[in-house]
Amino acid sequence: MKAVTVDGLRMRYGANDVLNDVTFQVDSGKVLALLGPNGAGKTTTIEILEGFRRRSAGRVSVLGVDPAHGDERWRARIGIVLQSWRDHAKWRVRELLTHQGSYYAGLAWDIDDLLAAVGLTEHADKQLRMLSGGQRRRLDVVIGLVGRPEMLFLDEPTAGFDPEARRDFHELIHGITGETTIMLTTHDLPEAEKLADRILILSEGRIVADGTAEELAGEDVVRWTLDGRRHERSTQDSTRFVFDLFKRYGDAVSGLEVRPASLEDTYLTLVENA
Ligand SMILES: Nc1ncnc2c1ncn2[C@@H]1O[C@H](COP(=O)(O)OP(=O)(O)OP(=O)(O)O)[C@@H](O)[C@H]1O
């Protein structure tokens, strides 16, 4: 089952193509992370899928519906966390969540459980204007979740989170995976590695990589010196390789270096060469 299907998506502002032939799918219940430099087209892609922007061309389906024609019933199945949320400065945290939850009668998560999951319990009765930036952001995430959506879009959900809030958020996401399909954007590569079943890298409006974190991270690199000569080898299993190297050559080997496979290396190479 595919929760999202995108085929040949194109977005043009004036004469400027910001998305070119973007094609991908998201399996139901999985987490997809969309990575890419500033201006790559991540928010544009997500906003088209949310039904906020009209695409220029291509086919798009979210939960079996074209977002350009999504009705109220379709919208009720979708949770959205934008990069910035409109201000409701005078509302209190619990009041706003209870109000949002009332749109999803019988479906919504328990408000207190949600508040606890993002560490907002002690701030539940504060007005929004009294919250710090990171606390506001945690509330944004909870608002996206309150209706227990089948599909959740998160645009840079953890921007401004402290390490503890980030960890709580990761646990929250792990807790709802399987039940909810999630598509998120982030600039935090370790976060993408931790959360995503699949990662897409977008650069200048094109997909330049699509795979699991492991697939994209490539191979470990082992370097060593033997008989005065420097050697280098890429390998999936550097522990095994180094073990065999020492078994064979013993202490004739020197200057050993192992650089683990890294999503960051792949990301930077792809983005710089795009
Ligand atoms: N309404 C608009 N009119 C014209 N150009 C736009 C509009 N909205 C976005 N763009 C352009 O589209 C491109 C992609 O923007 P988008 O916000 O999707 O990037 P992003 O990958 O989400 O970036 P960031 O990481 O900074 O959030 C940018 O070059 C941006 O200037």
From TrEMBL:
Database matches in CDD domains: ABC_DR_subfamily_A (cd03230)
Top-level taxon in the UniProt lineage: Bacteria
Keywords: Antibiotic resistance, ATP-binding, Nucleotide-binding, Transport
Official protein name in the record: ABC transporter ATP-binding protein
Subcellular location: Cell membrane
Membrane topology reported for the UniProt record: Peripheral membrane protein
UniProt KW Iron keyword: no
GO MF annotation: an example: ATP binding
InterPro entries cross-referenced by the UniProt entry: AAA+_ATPase, ABC_transporter-like_ATP-bd, ABC_transporter-like_CS, ABC_transporter_ATP-binding, P-loop_NTPase
ABC transporter domain boundaries: 4-229
